[in-house]
Design goal:
The protein is mainly beta. 4% of the residues lie in helices and 45% in strands. The longest helix is centred in the N-terminal third of the chain and has 8 residues.
């Protein structure tokens, strides 16, 4: 097995205003999340958030610490959340096994020493989309299926944003230190997510787009409300969203995305909304 990681430094709004397309993508775009028989990470200095993927095919994958963490084991001072976006998989956490089907989530608390990922079928491997944040105390490991989620339906077909929000790893479902994760599914005929747009200075976010049909794309909008930029993404790619930035998208088809966030608070509703007609 192999573990790969890269580090992304934080950028200020004034700096981002000067970036061309290539530099904008270099700072915020995560092009490859999954690689067969590997764990990939991107470490961002926004709240020291880590986003990545584990894709076990022929071998089981062990979650090892990386040099950047200066820790004896990965979860020594971190917590971990994941959602499986592939075939059925297994996660072994300090001797306890959890089975994750498609779109099921797992939270693993700080202090667990061994985490091992495997697939039930190499021909249809699991794809564990991973998010990790610093943690100050241990909370119990827990699997969260879609039936356990807090579900909210928003928008309408008339405004092209009819969507179902599945709150999976959030404080209304289970306890975490700061990590929150969920999944938003766009209804057929709807393409806009997180519209009206918003910002939240007390936490950052990462969006992972999947179920994007072949030949289609998603245009992710970011930046200050009066100074927006855009990044085009394909299936199973991700983008980092700073606290000062909006995070919204429109696809050439409907799609699903996973949102993960961390920061100072656990209040899902802590948002500063931006009027649609005032975006620039």
């Amino acid at each position: 097995m192999s573990t790969y990681y890269e580090s992304r430094y934080a950028s200020s709004p004034s700096e981002v205003k000067q970036l061309d397309t290539a530099k904008l993508r270099e700072a915020f775009f995560i092009e490859q999340v999954f690689e067969a028989d590997a764990i990939r990470w991107v470490y961002t200095h926004y709240d020291r958030y880590m986003a990545g993927g584990a894709m076990p095919v022929t071998d089981a994958l062990t979650l090892d610490s990386i040099d950047l963490l200066k820790a004896d084991y990965f979860l020594e001072r971190r917590e971990l959340g994941m959602i499986n976006v592939g075939g059925e998989g297994l996660v072994l956490v300090d001797g306890e096994e959890f089975e994750l089907a498609y779109k099921e989530a797992l939270y693993i608390g700080q202090g667990n020493r061994q985490v091992v990922f495997s697939s039930k079928d190499a021909a249809n491997p699991a794809k564990f989309y991973l998010n990790s944040t610093p943690a100050h105390q241990h909370y119990p490991t827990r699997k969260v299926a879609k039936t356990d989620a807090e579900v909210v339906t928003l928008g309408a077909l008339e405004t092209s944003n009819h969507r179902t929000i599945n709150k999976l790893l959030v404080n209304s479902v289970l306890e975490t230190c700061q990590l929150q994760m969920g999944m938003t599914e766009l209804k057929p005929g709807s393409v806009w997510n997180t519209m009206p747009a918003h910002t939240h200075d007390r936490r950052m976010e990462v969006y992972f787009y999947f179920e994007v049909p072949e030949g289609q794309s998603v245009c992710h909008f970011m930046g200050e409300p009066q100074e927006t930029r855009h990044i085009w993404l394909q299936n199973e790619q991700a983008v980092i969203s700073p606290p000062w930035s909006i995070h919204s998208g429109a696809g050439t088809s409907n799609y699903t995305f996973i949102w993960g966030m961390a920061g100072e608070n656990l209040d899902y509703g802590d948002m500063d909304f931006c009027a649609i007609q005032e975006l620039r």
